[in-house]
Fold:
Amino acid sequence: MNEHINNKLVSYKDKIKAIRKDFPILDIRLDNKPLVYFDNAATTQKPQQVLNAVADYYNTTNSNVHRGVHRLSNQATTLFEEARKTVAEFINAGEAEEIIFTRGTTESINLVAWSFCELFLNQGDEIIVSELDHHSNFVPWQMACKRKKATLKFIPILPSGQLDLNKFEELLSEKTKIVAVGHVSNTLGTINDIESIIELSHRRNIPVFIDGAQSAPHLKIDVKRLDCDFYAFSGHKMYAPMGIGVLYGKKEILQKLIPYQFGGEMVETVGFDDTTFNQLPYKFEAGTPNVGGAVGLEAAIKYINSIDRDFIFEYENLLKDYTSRRLNQIEDLDLLANIENKVGVFSFNVKNQHNYDVGVLLDNFGICVRTGTHCTQPLMQKLNILGTVRASLSFYNTVEEVDFFIESLKKVISILK
Amino acid sequence: MTIEDNIQSIKDQFSQFDDWLDKYNYLIELGKELPLIETKNKTEDYLIKGCQSRVWLYPEIKEGKLYFTADSDAVITKGLAALVISVFSGNPPAEIFNAPTDFINEIGLTEHLSPTRSNGLVSMLKQIKLYAFAFQSKI
Structure:
């Protein structure tokens, strides 16, 4: 098995070498050491194709969208709406109207947590999130519950780092108004069984919101097959610029929801006494949208498609298995969620050492990892730890980088001992 | 020793190291010699907010001079605490309040230490200045 993984990884060496040429930042050096970027769960690097698309847009087309009569505005509008179609195809949404551009996953969640709960959540109702969830898919629901005097319930995690679906089923009730869970844990990398969560919820006609911030870069997303009611993700975690994100929602639900931000293209008519709102998707896109960001996101999707998502999945899986094996060979390491059903996110602690010390020393080897609570403080409380070191991989990472990381980590452990 | 003397001594010490590893090893050693805060004072009141690692900093005034003890759960942060305490502790509050802090940039560590939430160095220096200001007005 190990030999098979190694052979496969060797066979992809040239392809990865070629891919890395698309990412200019991967060539920089830190203190004359090659950059090893293992903080991809926080944000990914951008390929030249995305950088060019954004620069081209600002160099040749930049204009405000939708209401201009001049040609630049029309061109910008066309690009913006083409980007929406590309996003819809990427996640297999039924229609482009189901795609709302936001600033990112966090804004997408806040939008639904306000708009949905304003309409459908009442005193005594319940919302279910999980103990694994990122603050962005935690706090907006917590605040909605406080606002409406409802109760927030949590799907507990098993020692493996996976969600306890038996307990989840017990939590579902007539009071449950929405279930909101992450597809992939940003801290542990575990892939949640959202298919079962959606199925169990839908049996009771409860809508499901999926936070796809950590899954969109790694897994094939098919919202029709999943049958989820909402799906959110961020551009910057999938090779697009920061400040652009997506909210997918089923049209029939989105049509019912009321907007939570007002002004700009989202209005239809405004009078002294009242205002009517535009149709989908514009009614949720108040103010001037991030057109350059949408253009960059479309370029990122085209780039991902050009590499082939099946290949990305296979290579990242091989690299994950290889990294897992090497990390498991290090003594004095507590590796969380040490299971197979995960993406290439490794959260660990060196026994008796603080995650911060490990992160600072790895940085001096030119290795970028994350340390701390990873915006999952409730999870840290549950696990009774202060934080972890997190190394998160992308398809542009190499076996050589993993080897250097492992050898550097061993040195860091010996320095701290 | 004045604060200026202490700063010069720290600069001299760090200028001897070419390798980053030596700087960190020295910092970690400094942490081991840190005047430790008494357990009874290791409370929320003396915890510096905003650090990825936790730092407790306790001030005490004796005969008109301000002394600090500290602790941290991360060894690098503990070393940084030892470093700043060795510069400021045992001096009159007014002198501590008016003393420069840019020596931190000159010893070649800050490029490796994030300035915001991570190591709390900025928070530590700010807290030392706040204590100095508070005790200055009490004298």
Remarks:
- The two ends of chain B are 21 Å apart (CA to CA).
- The helical segments of chain B are 3-15, 20-32, 75-88, 93-98, 103-106, 121-138.
- Chain B has a mean pLDDT of 88.
